[in-house]
Model the fold of this input.
Amino acid sequence: MPSPPRPQFVEALKDLLERVPTPFYAYDLERVGTQARLYRSAFRGARIFYALKANPRLRLLERLRVRGFGAETVSVGEVLRSYAAGYMPEEVVLNGPVKTPAALAELERSGAPTLVADSAADLERIARILPGAGVLLRLNPDLPVDTHPHLATGRGDSQFGVVPGEWPEVFERGRALGLVMRGLHVHLGSNLNNPADFAARLEVLDRLRERVERLGVLNLGGGFGLGLDPASLAPAMFSQARAYRAELWIEPGRALIADAGVLVARIWAEKRTRRRYLLLDAGMTAFLRPLLYGARHQVLPLYSGGRRAVFDLAGPACESGDVLARDVELPAPRIGDALAFLWAGAYGSAMSFNYLDHPRPGEYAWNGERWEVWRRPESLSALWRDEPDQPEYL
Done:
């Protein structure tokens, strides 16, 4: 279970409430530093690449780069964002199942990171547009894992990677195409809290090793849930890398930022249908995880109230699914009181979107003395900025 927010951070949140509009995301930089040190200590000697998809803010990337973290990306946009934060191509890994010719041509212009090929077709395109590129080939270990189905990327029925029986031949195909085949990438999924899942992956790698010669890199991906102790996992992962005579790489994302962040929203109505609701100014467009994954986030009231009651917390969208939490016990609020959804630092702001023309929230980080602006609240006019103001034809 993640740690509760520090009292100093909660007090700073209450001050920020008086200065910026809700909803907003806020981050405790001390907590980010603690998690970064935890992973660097547990995996001393490995290369650690932060997974941008968890939270891609530039100021966060700059901090992690200074601490020695690389960047793991899953789109050309994320690659260019990491370069904007100061990363060099050799410090970046590009993952993902589809790399279009246009995307690879952009990398030819801007600088190619280490590429994770997801299929034989991926290898063919990379070899044609980026000849001689450095490549890892992704393995699909064909394993069930203890997480939400949408997060289980290492199952044999998912669209990711090459299954173990085909992996050695596809790897050799990459070499025949003239690519620099650096090693193996295997990622089980996201938000894994069962150590048995990590152990099962190593068993698959044990069997594969009989058919694979020495590798330069063994990238074991991320997926580290907040309930895991990385120091308990690291020895077996290092042991597997040594067996392949490879350098160990890992890609934590959520583990570094999730419990450092909160989403703050105000309450604008209390009402009853057959259930008792609090209506908020943040909903699914600001925070998609509850709807998409059935995620449950602890809720912290930023007010003191009267008798406690049980509420559902719903957002402003005209959608019955726009409910961020159900059956939450809270003090009875007044209109305008605020509350915070905890553990929202990962896949919160990164997944926010503009459905129903809702602007995306602002983002701020507490450095112990003052608030840094990580992203300004999106303006209403920005919602139609890319639409021509006059008829336009092709």
Observations:
- The chain is about 30% helix and 25% strand.
- The domain at 7-26+258-379 is CATH 2.40.37.10 (Lyase, Ornithine Decarboxylase; Chain A, domain 1).
- Residues 146-155 have pLDDT under 50 and may be disordered.
- The first strand starts at residue 24 and ends at 28.
